[in-house]
Design brief:
Blueprint (H helix, E strand, L loop, with lengths): L2 H17 L11 E7 L2 H9 L8 E3 L2 E2 L2 H9 L5 E4 L3 H7 L6 E7 L4 E5 L15 E4 L4 H12 L8 E4 L5 H7 L4 E5 L2 H9 L2 E2 L11 E7 L1 H4 L2 H23 L1 H12 L4 H9 L5 E3 L1 H17 L18 H9 L3
Parallel strand pairs: 1-2, 1-3, 1-4, 7-8
Antiparallel strand pairs: 4-11, 5-11, 5-12, 6-9, 6-10
């Protein structure tokens, strides 16, 4: 299946996923609507106590992956969104510039190449010929491409299976794919429940840092009230992230053990694989974003190699700097 066809199928799935949510698009004037994934943002703000510092209403509709978020933000249902590293690039490549307003990263990758039960992959080169999950427009896309690059392979050297993010764990469980790009807690759950296996090549842990963004609907950035709300939100989020760095066991218990229902032992294992959150200004984030654009362009996944600087706004840099330098 050609990648263009894959992307169309992903967008159809995204539209269906979006409209299956309860309506949260009716009133985006008096409150800030922030797209969440795995309910990470909401839990971080609540666990750290920072949500109490916000003096306005805020909603956190939860999504499974970048394509569904893109459709919702195009529909005007969201103000800002928490996304992985690829969605802003794919949105811009498709003609929709959604400005990146904040960047946060971890040195250790959040994604893991995970193989189905009965299949152990010791070297990235063994991906050749395998059925591999492909979610165009998700951060998983560029992670897979870079894994293939390191092995001297191309997208045409594997069988790409188009799936929604929400379907990836079941695809591994059932053997629909040989390898999927997953993140915790799904990796640890599948290892323990069905005997799945992370790819064992040490190079896999060195592929890319775990970079995520908040991007914004341009209309929201043209509204002074929304801009002030976003400043307060980002201040609270950065402070919450600093709290999680300084209280990692309390955060892991709150999010993984209590909310995600992961065992204490598995929570400890997840925690060992994580590195602290780092918050970046636009100038600090641009070089890595350019690298991601170049990876996608060289793989033929986007048609134009554009300048990363055009994807960022500096509006909230001072807020991020002040929050990361202040107390948690």
């Amino acid at each position: 299946m050609k990648r263009r066809t894959l992307f169309r199928a992903a967008l159809v799935g995204a539209v269906s996923a979006f409209w299956s949510f309860p309506s949260f698009a009716a009133d985006t004037v008096s409150k800030l609507v922030v797209a969440d994934q795995s309910e990470f943002v909401r839990n971080l703000l609540e666990s750290s106590g920072q949500k109490q510092s916000l003096d306005f209403n805020i909603d956190f509709p939860n999504f499974a992956g970048g394509p569904a978020i893109l459709e919702a933000i195009r529909a005007g249902a969201l103000d800002i969104a928490y996304v992985g590293d690829t969605p802003p690039i794919q949105a811009r490549a498709s003609g929709t510039l959604l400005p990146i307003i904040a960047t946060f990263t971890r040195e250790a990758a959040q994604y893991r190449l995970t193989s189905r039960p009965g299949l152990v992959i010791r070297n990235l080169s063994e991906l050749k010929g395998k059925k591999v999950s492909y979610v165009e427009g998700s951060g998983r896309q560029v992670f897979l491409i870079e894994a293939l690059n390191r092995a001297g392979l191309k997208l045409t050297d594997v069988e790409l299976v188009n799936l929604r993010v929400a379907d990836l764990p079941d695809a591994i469980r059932s053997g629909t794919v040989d390898v999927a790009v997953l993140q915790e807690p799904h990796v640890t759950r599948l290892v323990n429940q069905v005997g799945a296996s992370p790819v064992l090549d040490p190079e896999e842990r060195k592929l890319l840092p775990s970079t995520s963004y908040f991007y914004a609907r341009p209309d929201a950035l043209a509204d002074p009230v929304k801009v002030e709300q976003i400043k307060k939100f980002l201040n609270a989020f950065v402070r919450a992230g600093k709290w999680s760095n300084e209280n990692e066991k309390a955060w892991a218990k709150s999010y993984f053990t209590d909310f995600q229902r992961v065992s204490t032992e598995d929570t400890d294992a997840i925690l060992k694989g994580q590195s602290p959150l780092i918050f970046q200004t636009s100038a600090e984030a641009i070089p890595h974003h350019q690298k991601l654009i170049d990876i996608l362009y060289q793989a033929g996944s986007i048609k134009e190699r554009f300048d990363a600087k055009g994807s960022f706004v500096e509006t909230f840099d001072a807020t991020i700097e002040q929050a990361r330098e202040g107390g948690s």
